[in-house]
Amino acid sequence: MKIAILHGPRDLRIEEQTLDVSRLAADEIWVKTRISALKIGTDRGNYEGADQVPGAPGYPRWVGDSNLGIVQAVGSAVTRVQVGDRIVTRAPHQSEYLLTGSESLVVIPDGVSDEDAVYAHLYALSAHCYHKAQFRPGETVAVVGLGVLGLGAIALGPLFGGRVVGIANSPIRMEMSQKMGAHANFLYDDPNLQAKLDEFSHGVGIDLVILTANPWPALRTAMQIVRPNGRVSVVSLLGRGEPPLDFNPLAMEWFYNKGISLLAVSGRAGYLYPDASPNPFQTADRYAWDHIAAHVVSLMADGLLRPSRLITHRFHYSEMVTAYEMAYQREKNMLGVTFNW
Ligand SMILES: NC(=O)c1ccc[n+]([C@@H]2O[C@H](COP(=O)([O-])OP(=O)(O)OC[C@H]3O[C@@H](n4cnc5c(N)ncnc54)[C@H](OP(=O)(O)O)[C@@H]3O)[C@@H](O)[C@H]2O)c1
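A: This is the predicted complex of the input protein with NAP.
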């Protein structure tokens, strides 16, 4: 089978590895990939050799974690999927692989295209930005940074009942955000940003900021524009590969005096009303990861969510290095990128 392996900064190679599928263990699932998607923010950071993400393996390492494939065979104990099912997993860019039935996966219903479904996990992360912050319908949300995750948050906001504004660092991204359903879009360095946000929120201010951009100035923007007692969901890996700070990121005027909450979009979101279960130790969790991903896929099945609208590049897997180099150059017109296997 073929797999993309990163040997060091900007040294990505497609390699041949063996995969023994002759005898599956009871809980194993054999999957052949149809398409995988580039997760630009994280993948580009790894590719260019920015600080390592905590928990990620060193070099040589796999890349990518949005994979859509077809189940070829299942072990005797697997009940979640059947042969022929189309599933989205968090497997790296590779032509085929084995996973176990307890790993993260979502079965894709008929009617959802491959190119929408492959974004299930990325959009689940966008959704998690809302859940982690205990978002409530009717709140006003600003999304700072409009890459794949940010635009996912833009698309989901109105579906969740929010009024959503995109804060971009380029007019191209403002246009994309408009297309994804933002109620308004502004540039982060607009001298009248605060006045425009006040008008947008009818003087109430921004209840929740979703921060998806790594650079420190983006945190400053987030903390400036959030209203007193508001909250900031931080999904970006702040400061990753950035020069040292020239300001205090938790300055009293923005943090303490405003009484805001900073939330890390990692780990589980709290949920007040878990399912009643006969076993008090086994309550179903509404915001377990695969539940969020399945919800996102159901919005696609309803025709309400179309991540594929933002696919700007489709590559054969053998051209993967070209795609990563384009991301490295930060080409602004590059957003959704898929690889065909
Ligand atoms: N917490 C997690 O579990 C998790 C998982 C995956 C990803 N992430 C992180 O989430 C972030 C978003 O991912 P992504 O794939 O959407 O990344 P992305 O494509 O890099 O999106 C971030 C966008 O923000 C823009 N930006 C930079 N500075 C800005 C500013 N001051 N104001 C407004 N926009 C600004 C960037 O522009 P430029 O290209 O010009 O810099 C880029 O378009 C990444 O940092 C990624 O590492 C976190």
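The longest strand covers residues 28-37. The chain has nine helices and 16 strands.
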